[in-house]
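FAQ: What does the model actually see?

It sees only this:
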Amino acid sequence: MPPKATASQDGPFSPSSRFVCPQPVRVCILGASFQKDNLAVSSILSGTIKVILSTYRDVEISVLDGTVAPGWMDVVQEGTKTEVKCLRIAFSARLSTENNIWTMLIGSLVSRLPRSQRIHDGLTTHHSCLRSIEAADIVVSLSGGDRFTDSYGVTRFLSAALPQLLVLLLRRPLVFLPQTLGPFQKRLTKIIA
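And it is asked to produce this:
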């Protein structure tokens, strides 16, 4: 973790305390997007970004999700505008699609083999989600607040779980933010969870 700034008079955990790092802290957020049809998920994401911005002075934030509109979004916190990078994870049968979850998972497994640097380099060139995760100091998962369960079906569960597995395969720190976990009724989803 980055070193803490000098504590204010209110103490080290006061709202005025911030973490200071010699370079930008890179944070990836999984499992949420600014959706017009789901204001709860948008609120969770907005609150998460505001907490990150109030914690770190110099931060780069990426949002990775299957429902996110790719591009940049401006977030204003305490009068300061921050650009948040939005990357769409593709859950598609077309493996050649940019940021296809299946291609990134298989490629991440293969890239762990000896002498596979070329494969790794080729994948990161084509998949901006891989680059963001690999560059991240921390990856946080929201799972839409309540998607880390099989109550809504296996497909919806996998949309939350597979990006998390990708983060673990890439050996990046993964933090589950407050959310509903479970229940899991199917054996497969229990094993994945």
